[in-house]
Amino acid sequence: xxxxxxxxxxxxxxxxxxxxxxxxxxxxxxxxxxxxxxxxxxxxxxxxxxxxxxxxxxxxxxxxxxxxxxxxxxxxxxxxxxxxxxxxxxxxxxxxxxxxxxxxxxxxxxxxxxxxxxxxxxxxxxxxxxxxxxxxxxxxxxxxxxxxxxxxxxxx
Length: 156
What we know:
Layout: E1 5-9, H1 11-19, H2 24-33, E2 37-42, H3 43-53, H4 56-61, H5 67-80, E3 82-84, H6 100-109, E4 113-115, H7 119-122, H8 130-138, E5 143-145, H9 147-155
Parallel strand pairs: 1-2, 1-4, 2-3, 4-5
Helix pairs in contact: 1-2, 1-3, 2-9, 3-5
């Protein structure tokens, strides 16, 4: 049996999964919940998604996102994700330092993919800046992909 893909979802993917149960992001989360991929989270990531889910401007965009749904989502995420407590800062991403938590977690666990719709993260695969070049040189097997691409990977 092949090893499960090791993945890290960024905050936008987690937000979309929480707010829209019929979304591609929610389908990706279901892969993790069913044990078809191994999802990793850290304290930083859990704190960020909890903060984002409770922001008034986010709630205004997603009126169905209640306190109960947000709380249940965080609890659900904790139940089936692998929590990593020690995530050293091994990569500095000057373009968007908020994205470092995802990159460093992925590096720490030897993830196959960071699943994201964030342009700054996605640009690591094709960008020309020094950060992008360093990322591709240091993490040759780590790819940043969109949620739909993860679903395609699992189909194959």
